[in-house]
Amino acid sequence: MTPRAGLTTERLTQAGATLADEVGFDHVTVSELARRFDVKVASLYSHVKNSHDLKTRIALLALEELADRAADALAGRAGKDALVALANVYRDYAREHPGRYAAAQFRLDPETAAASAGVRHAKMTRALLRGYDLDEPDQTHAVRLLGSVFHGYVSIEMGGGFSHSAPDTEETWSRVLDALDALLRSWPPAP
């Protein structure tokens, strides 16, 4: 790799994230990235080990970007306002960066996951849930519920599953968030 090429691990990760948004996260490879930079694949191996390493780096970048957006959106908010803000961060990010959003779902090894911004996501979600006065294990159940609903809705919407019928998805999204808020406010105590 010539210094002139200006390739760094960070630049390749950013380019891989852009590539993921353009062609889909599943189609990101070191070979495709090398084509984008008009260099030989071997030239990239001093910066990334292989396609799995590249995808892991893109996943970490996506988790960091999402966590930063979520922190900004949640600042000073509580209760339903915080719930809506967090939900909209995920939905907006998925719409703007579909490949990166998919990358954020990439399974990381336990050590990498523990050092990732995924931990910040969990802490922010738990902080949001303190406004609903949930104790354990209900808080963990609620974290899983929110993640499932946000990701499920966004995935179906992005896949075009709601595009062929009325009412508008904005109305449904609003109702989904209203229902989540009502559910969290009346969450039954653990048996």
From TrEMBL:
InterPro entries: Homeodomain-like_sf, HTH-type_TetR-like_transc_reg, HTH_TetR, MT1864/Rv1816-like_C, Tet_transcr_reg_TetR-rel_C_sf
Protein name in the entry: AcrR family transcriptional regulator
Highest taxon listed in the record's lineage: Bacteria
DNA-binding region: 29-48
All residue ranges annotated as the HTH tetR-type domain in the record: 6-66
Organism per entry: Streptomyces thermodiastaticus
Keywords assigned: DNA-binding, Transcription, Transcription regulation
UniProt xrefs under SUPFAM superfamilies: Homeodomain-like, Tetracyclin repressor-like, C-terminal domain
Pfam families named among the record's database cross-references: TetR_C_33
